[in-house]
Amino acid sequence: MLLGTLLVLFLLGGAAPASAHAALRATDPADGTVLKTAPRALTLTFTESVGLLDGSFRVYDPDGHRLRTGPPGHADGRADTARVTLPGTLGRGTYTVAWRVVSADSHPVSGAFTFSVGAPSPAVAAPATAPAEDPATGTLFDLARYTAYGGAALLIGTAVFLGVCRPPDTAEPVLRRVARTGWWLLLAATTALLLLRAPYETGEGPSAALDPGGLARTLTTRPGQALAARLALLGAVALLPRRPRALRTAGPVLAVALALTWASAEHASAGPQVPVAMASAVLHLLAMAVWLGGLVCLLTLLHPARPVPAAVPARFSRLALACVAVLAVTGVYQSWRGLGSWPALTGTAYGRILLAKLAAVALLLTVAALSRGWTARLASSADAVAAETRGSVAPEEHQERAAPADAVPEEHPEPELTTAGSRARREGDAPGGARRARPAEPAAHRGPTPPGAAPAQGRRPAAATALRRSVVAETLIGVLVLVITTVLTTTLPGRAEAEAAATTAPAGALPGASVTRVPFAVAGARGTVQVTLTPGRTGDNAVEAVVYGPDGGFATVPELRISFTLPDRQLGPLDARVTDRGGYWAADAVTLPLPGTWTMKVTVRVSEVDQVSVTRPVRVAP
């Protein structure tokens, strides 16, 4: 049912705007272009607002040396752009630009592109990527994220379990220790995330977390402010147990505020429908915390030596069912918002991780249904024990009549889940704490046991054991779902990945143009033609060609022709109609309508009568 609803929403919502994770929309100058004069600045335009780092741009000259550039900034005050000024003079050749920014949902995004001044370099330096990320920093940051989610589940889930499921007073100290464990885990994880935020964004090692300047810069960003607010809220939570009345009134407010510290700094804070998305993210996180934290509480109480009233798991069963409903609705919405199309479900990393999460959730719901079944069976068995206990005193009715008038009638507390608790109920306790003696009941008074049925006292421990096992399985699978969810929050959403793939200069393309070197030799003349096809995809492509002599220097020829043929479709030849632009040959647009391996034919004329034609395969992407 959940998967069916999800697929229906995919069909209805496939045309919504892009969501989360900044994707590079365009660069100025464009990737792979050849300019007559050097640009004064570089400008990148993204699909959403981005944050800039001190090292957001690294520009390398044709020899691979890094250039000194101005400080990065936003072009014309637009938050979705990044601009850096270049040195006053740039020589001829190909330049490589590596960039790294932080998208609005707090995740770093990086890539690179190239442009040439005058003509492409004879030997283009290997494109440099953004600074390599230190794997230790990424591992520690991810571990802190997992721990933060787990601590929130224990803290919030335990608080709700105590208030809604009403366990016995004897269990409250144990559950308060669980809540304190969650508080400390969340405090430690949040502190680690705050310190590691700066090296996580820049890609540096964990030692950079001790840099005061990095921490100061982190506190000026939205993710850093959200983490600082979480620490302040945890301080307020620590004061609540000393004020029980404040706990009942301020507890729910603090739980919502804690959930907002996640929603305000991750996927929900960027893209379409931000207010709805943030409300959905808050509800999703709270439902997850109440369910998983409650499972840990229930598992803690379902101990063979610790009697638990049967009503406690019954109340949690109803609470968990409400959490499942909230998780289903909010999960469907967030999945639609993150994917947006059918192909993204299997064609993107986000979609494949989402499918894994759906499979884990389906398994979790199956185990949860088993737990609900055992809970219902346990409650029914407990009712039978209570009825048997009350009926066992009927043959002694004459003794009750003979009892003193001021005798206190026997109470029948709520049935419990352990065998020890069952015996206590059957023997009975006097109000003063002394055991009430009861003569042995004749077998004739007990009544026959139904065929094939075990006594109630034997059924109840078996049901309690089965419930404990199903809760263990449910908890383990819930932790798996939590881990997958954490991975999902750090994965580029399907919408953004599809848009990034559709842009002229895709993020991470190294480089975005197709470069082919074609050697030739005719009438004693030798050389190489370097042909650049930009962007190397179907549709209009710019063509630039530079002729080099045998010594690697620039060479001139009387004529140069380039054409394209797609043999398996019997398409072409398509003449590129390149013209001499003073040192290189170029055509502003040649239309290649179909993807595939095209045959590029380069004809070089070196004299009035001497020319040669050379063919090379060229891959054209969709």
TrEMBL record:
Residues 395-415 have a biased composition (Basic and acidic residues). SUPFAM superfamilies: E set domains. It is found in: Cell membrane. Its main location: membrane. Coiled coil: none annotated. Residues 1-22 form the signal peptide. Residues 389-462 are annotated as: Disordered. Keywords: Cell membrane, Copper, Membrane, Metal-binding, Signal, Transmembrane, Transmembrane helix. Residues 312-383 form the Copper resistance protein D domain. Residues 21-117 form the CopC domain. The chain crosses the membrane at residues 143-162, 183-200, 277-302, 314-333, 353-371. It is a multi-pass membrane protein. Pfam families: CopC (PF04234), CopD (PF05425). This is Copper resistance protein CopC. It comes from Streptomyces griseosporeus.
